[in-house]
Amino acid sequence: MNELERLKAAYQPAQVQELSEEDMRWYREGKFGMMLHWGLYSIPGKGEWVMFNERMSVGEYARLAEKFTAGDFNAKEWAEAAKRAGMKYMVLTARHHDGFCLFDSKVSSFNSVNSAAGRDLIGEYTKACREAGLKVGIYYSPMDWRFPGYFFPNLYFDNAMEMRRQCHEQLQELLTQYGKIDILWFDGEWLAHGGIKDGSQGWYRDKDYGKDPLFFHVNYFWQSEETINMIRRLQPGIMVNNRFGWKGDFQVRERYVGGMRTDKPWESADCLANSWGWIQNAEMRTLIDSVQNLVRAAVRDGNTLLNVAPTPTGGLEERFAKRLAGIGDWLKEFGDTIYGTRGGPVLPGNWGGCTYRDDMIYVHILEWHEDYVVLSGIPGKVVSYTARNAAEITLAQTREGVVISVPRKYRDSIDTIIELKVDGPIRWEGVEPFELGIYGLGDGLKKEEKQ
Ligand code: GLC
User: Fold this and answer.
1) β-strand 251-254 against 303-307: which pairing, if any?
2) Per residue in 270-306, pLDDT tens?
3) I need a surface site. Which of 74, 123, 223, 373 has the fewest CB within 10 A?
4) Between 2.60.120, 3.30.70, 3.40.50, 2.60.40, what CATH number should domain 345-422 receive?
5) How far is the CA of 44 from the centre of ligand 1 (A)?
6) What dihedral do alpha carbons 184, 188, 191, 195 form, nearest 10°?
């Protein structure tokens, strides 16, 4: 047995304090948040994995801090843009896998206070979020590419342990220096990228990564369960995602919406432009696509966390601000069919899906594959209906279900919305949970091949 295996064999996970539905209500109701990836990697503009992908030396990468001025950073402007988009919370990379901190860390000098910026950016960010009435989220990567022990934990075991200590101490800093934090968003808990291999070109990330539990299921390494309890002691009610070796209060799906899940809060993390970290002229989502993505998550009972990449100096591209405002305009008009609803009680499909609240069902038709949509399984009888954005619709209650059709010229190009009022409050037990991605494994759920 090597030291890592011994650590694993000796590990006894603590009982984690779970949150109640009430604790997480704001999140379920809020539906929409902004993610921001910003750090030294924004400067070369090749995405947040540039240090690893281009095999930059730790020293060479660290020199980027001299150019990290944060000259256009104004946290209030970010918070305003998020609010304008109809978002209810924000999540900023306090530290990505490169180890560079946007906060004043006593345990690592590789931070923004020691960069050209000379400021604690997390301090400004958390304050601005709170002042704007948004919930405050912090992204934190426990792993750190500067540590050889991360890549080769057996060979450099003590170094890996140092990385772990840094993680625990920085979590304490983040959770005690900045007031109330509502979300802790972990990313990159696996060791050695879930398993690395040696090849003729040197070592590389195993394409089957995730298969070796020694590197992938690493709660024994981070002492995840005790750490979550520590986090909750410092910040009661904080929501933690499923990327720290524990199943999480909520589940993250990365860049896909996936099947429906009603047993547990979840979010689809996705990008407004085609990268997490800033890239010049990255292709941006259309308004239709942005809104439809949000709707597709909501009808599946989930949230959307939309990543907006700030420029190297921390500004927001004008085109991003405009797109966000466009999404916000749509939500101003139709947000009542999204916020505070649950997904269901009809199963979604490519055509769209439904959200509901009390005795109201909001039908969202995004694509027409036939000239009509059949909604089966509606509990109760439809007593009245209103088309929100179509001049003319027909609705029939048949044995197969409620059949809706809208003449082609009256269909909305983004989302044709029809409200149905049923004869009593909707009670629906939801669907059996399943997950598609590898990140779902922390939940003990089986990975499904199909949607
Ligand atoms: C992926 C990317 C990582 C990014 C994360 C956001 O894991 O590799 O860089 O931060 O997605 O969910």
Assistant:
1) unpaired
2) 999 999 999 999 999 999 999 999 999 999 999 999 9
3) 74
4) 2.60.40
5) 17
6) 150
